[in-house]
């Protein structure tokens, strides 16, 4: 099956009215353990005149052995990028949607620290729900776009950058908690992960407020 290459069609249209685009995509929303992460990637008119990065796709469509290379080249390709985080404790305390909003605003804040004029940017967000504005409003607003990570090159870049960083974080946690297999499942609800929870209970990195025993297998 041929996988569609993301394009700049949406970004070019939006950049007729806005100076900058900040594309955001989340990773880890459905995991049982670990933080949620939101990647943010900047697109400007100069970027949209460049060729699409070779191998760039929604992170879920890139084979795992190739993701780190694509993410490294994506970071060098876009004008600026960042990843924001919300911990498992924050997911428990405020709920997943609010936690996603916190992670996204932290990512955008880090872009501001890099010199990006975030108040001049329109934020595009993969999905159909704006979870950012209830946490913080930005000057040009937030525009959810269904399948942005598949169709918009900037969102695909944000997706793979965040995916690689979160996966690396979960692999780093593995040695302290090897029974859960996070090096393989990255905190998602594999059958082996759920069996380990049943045998060993929850770690401090699990989202304790979730109905973990009944969690579906997500991949």
TrEMBL record:
Organism annotation: Microbacterium dauci
Protein name (database record): Ribonuclease
Cofactor notes: Manganese or magnesium. Binds 1 divalent metal ion per monomer in the absence of substrate. May bind a second metal ion after substrate binding.
Cofactor needs: Mn(2+); Mg(2+)
Gene3D superfamilies (UniProt xref): Ribonuclease H-like superfamily/Ribonuclease H
Annotated RNase H type-2 domain residues: 19-219
Known EC number: 3.1.26.4
Keyword Ligase attributed: no
Main location: cytoplasm
């Amino acid at each position: 099956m041929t996988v569609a290459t993301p394009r700049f069609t949406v970004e070019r249209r939006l950049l007729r009215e806005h100076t900058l685009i900040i594309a955001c995509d989340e990773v880890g929303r459905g995991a049982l353990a670990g933080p949620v992460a939101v990647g943010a990637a900047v697109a400007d008119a100069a970027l949209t005149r460049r060729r699409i990065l070779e191998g760039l796709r929604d992170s879920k469509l890139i084979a795992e052995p190739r993701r780190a290379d694509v993410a490294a080249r994506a970071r060098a390709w876009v004008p600026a990028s960042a990843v924001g985080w919300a911990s498992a404790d924050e997911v428990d305390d405020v709920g997943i949607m609010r936690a996603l909003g916190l992670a996204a605003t932290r990512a955008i804040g880090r872009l501001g620290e890099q010199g990006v004029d975030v108040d001049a940017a329109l934020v595009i967000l993969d999905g159909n729900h704006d979870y950012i504005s209830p946490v913080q409003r930005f000057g040009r607003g937030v525009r959810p776009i269904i399948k942005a990570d598949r169709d918009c090159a900037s969102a695909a870049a944000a997706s793979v950058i965040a995916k690689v960083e979160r996966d690396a974080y979960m692999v780093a946690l593995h040695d302290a908690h090897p029974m859960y297999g996070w090096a393989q499942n990255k905190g998602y609800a594999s059958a082996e992960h759920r069996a380990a929870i049943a045998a060993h209970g929850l770690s401090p990195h699990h989202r304790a407020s979730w109905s973990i025993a009944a969690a579906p297998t997500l991949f």
